[in-house]
Amino acid sequence: MSADISFKHINKLAIPALIAGVSEPILSLTDAAVVGNISENATESLAAVGIVTTFLSMLIWVLGQTRSAISSIVSQYVGANKLNEITSLPAQAIFIVTSLSILIIIGTYPFARSIFKLYNASNLILEYCIDYYRIRVFGFPFTLFTMAVFGAFRGLQNTFYPMIIALIGAALNIVLDFILVYGIPNYISPMYVNGAAYASIIAQIIMALLSAYFLLTKTPITLKISFPFNKEINHFLLMVLNLFIRTVALNVTLYFASAYATSYGANYIAAYTIAINLWFLGAFIIDGYASAGNILSGKLYGAKQYNLLIQLSNKLIKYGVLLGISTAIIGVILYYPVGRIFTNETEVLQAFYSIFFVILIMQPLCALAFIFDGMFKGLGKMKYLRNVLLCATFLVFLPILFLLDYFNFKLYAIFIALTIWIIARGLPLIIKFRKLFLPLAKNN
């Protein structure tokens, strides 16, 4: 099966994937922005939304790895022209992940108070956390369903429908936030924090329904659960397990970075928050090309077109480095204005400006790491991804952080450690990829 790896085709996959990816956090960001401007107890409401969103994002991040696993398997079978052999797999995978989400609802709903006390929530903030979570959590199965369907679309080399679904969901959530949080005089009473939760759930349900509709009408994949399980189900579960362990390692890195920044004082944690969120923004920008690498590498691997796989990697290296350098240049131009978007506190800005250049230097390195991360997911090499991240976290990031912190480098310790961590993630992937596929390409 032939495959198009032209710049135009890569962008056709990457840009919709980028838009869909950026739309995902808008559901939570909108809640925070709207709730932060309500007329009463705005600070407590905003804090509660932030805490609950952090907890839910962690759960979604862990279980949402099914998207990559489904995408990898489907894309490889598309490449091998054997899609008919795994059309039953997505429905079975969705059944498994939604069943797990229901168990999580049952296991967390009664213990919401204890969970959010662990986040140091108390008094009115704690009560708002409980109220908000006990509504929002019922959207969890719909979110995971949508993410799994997005994985199937990615495997089918289609990022257009996920983009449409994500945009509709984000727009609907924004409209419902204003209506339900603030109310409409004489028609709908203000619901404040609870209104934000209901807005998110409605948007998540609509996105799930749209996902099901487009999957059933635009693809040969069914949502009817059939037994026995597909022959690839064990492979799917093993990939999800490896991605789960990998995600735990990733969260360890972010936890220690945040914990050390907090220990340095309020000005440092504020500066760290600005810097790390700008780093996440850079990650979202490159995620579209990482998704294109994921989608195309799986198809080429399934088709055994190793020459094109090497060509794809070379192109994505070039595009990634150029995109990373462009992002860094924009950051240099906006070096001082960007900090003032977030705060006018002099000491916070001084701390931020002192390390922002490290974030900019990281951008081309992040692009390489994230692109090859996406390609290895497409290839289904989740075990190697797991091992690389475990080594990068526990043998590289943490020792460097501890050492530099000992010498009182403070925020420099965190971001220097993160930079070397990124190199430790990306370099082994590039070396392993070439070691695996250059010999195969020569014999192709």
TrEMBL record:
<dbReference type="Pfam" id="PF01554">
    <property type="entry name" value="MatE"/>
</dbReference>
<feature type="transmembrane region" description="Helical">
    <location>
        <begin position="93"/>
        <end position="112"/>
    </location>
</feature>
<dbReference type="InterPro" id="IPR044644">
    <property type="entry name" value="DinF-like"/>
</dbReference>
<comment type="similarity">
    <text>Belongs to the multi antimicrobial extrusion (MATE) (TC 2.A.66.1) family.</text>
</comment>
<keyword id="KW-0812">Transmembrane</keyword>
<feature type="transmembrane region" description="Helical">
    <location>
        <begin position="350"/>
        <end position="372"/>
    </location>
</feature>
<feature type="transmembrane region" description="Helical">
    <location>
        <begin position="316"/>
        <end position="338"/>
    </location>
</feature>
<feature type="transmembrane region" description="Helical">
    <location>
        <begin position="269"/>
        <end position="296"/>
    </location>
</feature>
<feature type="transmembrane region" description="Helical">
    <location>
        <begin position="410"/>
        <end position="431"/>
    </location>
</feature>
<feature type="transmembrane region" description="Helical">
    <location>
        <begin position="132"/>
        <end position="153"/>
    </location>
</feature>
<feature type="transmembrane region" description="Helical">
    <location>
        <begin position="384"/>
        <end position="404"/>
    </location>
</feature>
<dbReference type="InterPro" id="IPR002528">
    <property type="entry name" value="MATE_fam"/>
</dbReference>
<dbReference type="GO" id="GO:0006811">
    <property type="term" value="P:monoatomic ion transport"/>
</dbReference>
<dbReference type="InterPro" id="IPR050222">
    <property type="entry name" value="MATE_MdtK"/>
</dbReference>
<keyword id="KW-1003">Cell membrane</keyword>
<feature type="transmembrane region" description="Helical">
    <location>
        <begin position="42"/>
        <end position="63"/>
    </location>
</feature>
<keyword id="KW-0813">Transport</keyword>
<protein>
    <recommendedName>
        <fullName>Multidrug-efflux transporter</fullName>
    </recommendedName>
</protein>
<dbReference type="GO" id="GO:0005886">
    <property type="term" value="C:plasma membrane"/>
</dbReference>
<feature type="transmembrane region" description="Helical">
    <location>
        <begin position="160"/>
        <end position="184"/>
    </location>
</feature>
<feature type="transmembrane region" description="Helical">
    <location>
        <begin position="196"/>
        <end position="216"/>
    </location>
</feature>
<feature type="transmembrane region" description="Helical">
    <location>
        <begin position="236"/>
        <end position="257"/>
    </location>
</feature>
<dbReference type="InterPro" id="IPR048279">
    <property type="entry name" value="MdtK-like"/>
</dbReference>
<keyword id="KW-1133">Transmembrane helix</keyword>
<keyword id="KW-0472">Membrane</keyword>
<keyword id="KW-0050">Antiport</keyword>
<dbReference type="GO" id="GO:0042910">
    <property type="term" value="F:xenobiotic transmembrane transporter activity"/>
</dbReference>
<keyword id="KW-0406">Ion transport</keyword>
<dbReference type="GO" id="GO:0015297">
    <property type="term" value="F:antiporter activity"/>
</dbReference>
